[in-house]
Amino acid sequence: MENPMHLQVDQRTTDWRLIIARILETLIGVILLLAGLLKAWAPMDFNQQISDYKIITHPALVTVIAWVMIVVECALGTALIVGYKRRIAVPAAIVLVLLFLAAVGWAWVTGATEDCGCFGSWVKRTPAEAFLEDAGMLIAIVCAWLLSRHEPLRFARWRLGAVLASILIGISVTALASNSARQSADPIVRLQAQSSGKRQFAGVAVSGIDFDLQRGKYLVMLMDTGCTHCQQSVPEVNRLIASSNAGFRIVALCSNSDKEIDWFKGKFKAEFPIGRISYDDFMRLFERGKTPRLMLIQEASVIKIWDGVVPAANEVRY
């Protein structure tokens, strides 16, 4: 006959293992659910992030993957939080995080994209940072699986209801957001949705240049001094200045320091003026564009946008 004291100790050990496992699962579940809802709120941004990995680029397939990922993250995150079907949800979460690691590892090795992470466009992470974060998530969820595989039997219907509700919410938010102006495929429409009026550059404070962007016609380049794409575009922009007689001026804007701007001008021989704007203004104007973003503006209103490319002089004229 077994010792009752021995059984009591085993039960306490099991309880503690289950408690720790559930805490870890809940933390990972919250991360996945929040990530899914944020992506649902900005589905076009998530589409762009998937395309940036350059693994899958067909627009229709990217859209399908984005919707599926939103549903999976919402459902799996909720399942981990409420403890529904642990023997399925926890291994599924392990597989999902492994997929994240594979994609981020690809981006890290190939340099396909400079921004990664669970939270889409809401939180910027380098591939290295995202890889370490995903590795931490993998360790946590694997530990939860090893600590306890106990399957809760009570309130199964309520747990299932919570999972189904999260799926419905994720799909509904994605559908609504996809049809909003701020998620339009047209960058000018998106900028107008984020601005109080049609003059997107109205009220933007610029230092370091003598031009008044509120008046006249300009080709504005949004750039970062540390961006390799921006650095490589300098010769093209210089040539555009030399060949341009369309009656507009070329100005670059960034949120870098004066020291970083001086370094950029000296090293890459930029022949165009570079002004400084606030980080908030920079991110609002850049939104989900590609560097460098060039914008033709007149009287502070954006007329045309080119993302990741320098237009020819005849393209700028209108």
Taking Cα atoms only, what radius of gyration do you get, to the nearest Å? Answer: 25 Å
Describe the biggest sheet?
Answer: 5 strands, mixed
Mean pLDDT over the residues:
84
Which residues sit in consecutive blocks of at least 5 with pLDDT less than 50?
A: 5-11, 116-122
**Structural domain tally:** 2
**Overall form:** elongated
Assign the structural class, choosing from mainly alpha, mainly beta, alpha/beta, alpha+beta, or little secondary structure.
alpha/beta
Quote the beta fraction.
5-15%
Helix fraction, binned, reads: 55-70%
Topology, number of strands: 5
Order of helices and strands: HHHHHHHEHEHEHEEH
Count the helices. How many? 11
Task: Determine the N-to-C terminus distance.
Answer: 93 Å
Spatial strand order of the main sheet = 3-2-1-4-5
Helix and strand layout, with pairings?
Layout: H1 4-41, H2 43-52, H3 59-82, H4 86-110, H5 127-147, H6 156-178, H7 187-194, E1 217-222, H8 228-243, E2 249-254, H9 258-268, E3 274-276, H10 279-286, E4 293-298, E5 301-307, H11 313-316
Parallel strand pairs: 1-2, 2-3
Antiparallel strand pairs: 1-4, 4-5
Helix pairs in contact: 1-3, 1-5, 1-6, 2-3, 3-4, 3-6, 4-5
Keywords:
318 residues, Glutaredoxin, elongated, five-stranded mixed beta sheet, 2 domains, 5 strands, alpha/beta
Report on this model:
The protein is an alpha/beta fold and 318 residues long. The protein folds into 2 domains: 176 residues, no CATH class; 127 residues, Glutaredoxin (3-Layer(aba) Sandwich), CATH 3.40.30. The protein has 11 helices and 5 strands. The chain has a 5-stranded mixed beta sheet with strand order 3-2-1-4-5, covered by helices on one side. Strand 4 and strand 5 form a beta hairpin. Helix 2 crosses helix 3. The radius of gyration is 25 Å and the shape is elongated.
